[in-house]
Amino acid sequence: MPNRSKFQWDSTLYYLTFIVTLILLLEIISVFFTFQNNIYVEVLGTISSTIEATLPIPQIIENFRRKSTKNLSNTLVGCWILGDSMKTIYFYVSAAPIQLLISGMAQILLDVFVIFQICIYRKLDPAREPLASNNVN
Predict the structure, then answer these.
(1) DSSP secondary structure string for all residues of the chain
(2) Model's pTM, two decimal places?
(3) Yes or no: is domain 54-137 CATH 1.20.950?
């Protein structure tokens, strides 16, 4: 049977080498461009907030593929929605750049979609504990 690990690196050392190299490369590029161009800062902020906004998508896909949210912690999802809501309110109140506000709203939408999946899949699995339970593993 093939290894179903989501970790695709041959070793932890290769992974850490890649991460350190990526961070150093981005740092060098950032130092160079930040002093010369505000567009670079805006593009970097947009890319990073877009990546952060899409973090729940792999979980949504996995839930859909399995037709279950069995090992998904209610506490985790609650913290997602609470943190993303507070962050988005802060972006709105502080008049942050529009891309941050849009990414915050996208995160909340994806969080709500995960909550929707929890409700739907719990109805399909009567053996599953009620939504109000705290199933921290």
Answers:
(1) -----S---S-HHHHHHHHHHHHHHHHHHHHHHHTT-HHHHHHHHHHHHHHHHTTTHHHHHHHHHHT--TT--HHHHHHHHHHHHHHHHHHHHTT--HHHHHHHHHHHHHHHHHHHHHHHHHHH-TTSPPTTS----
(2) 0.70
(3) no
